Amino acid sequence: MKYTNATKILPEKLIIEIQKYVQGETIYIPKQVMEYNHWGSLSGGRQWLDHRNADIRLAFKNNNSIEQLAKDYFLSIETIKRIVYSHKK
To answer: Helices 45-61 and 77-85 meet at what angle, rounded to 10?
Structure first.
């Protein structure tokens, strides 16, 4: 998180209004909800996980056991169960 002096970016009237509520403290102003990126959307990590999970679901439908999938994908049995029994397609 970057620190910016309010006097450099905000109009004086707005600063005076904010000072009615807080003075001399650091406040955090979050991004608007539409500005957030979903996890992994920039790096491609989300796509990679979605593809991997689809492969696991397909292998499970083709009669691979949960234990074998856990070994093949280096995941816990509980994680494999969560993936194959989820309703995400």
So the answer is: 90
Are 57 and 79 within 8 A, CB to CB?
A: no
Nearest to 53 by CA among 81, 23, 33, 13: 81
Contact 30, 17 (CB under 8 A): no
How far apart CA 25 and CA 12 sit, in angstroms, is 17
Q: What is the pLDDT of residues 7-33, one digit of tens each?
A: 999 999 999 999 999 988 888 888 777
The Cα 89–Cα 65 span in angstroms is: 19
Amino acid at 61: K
Cβ atoms 17, 25 nearer than 8 A: no
Altogether, the residues listed in the chain come to a count of 89
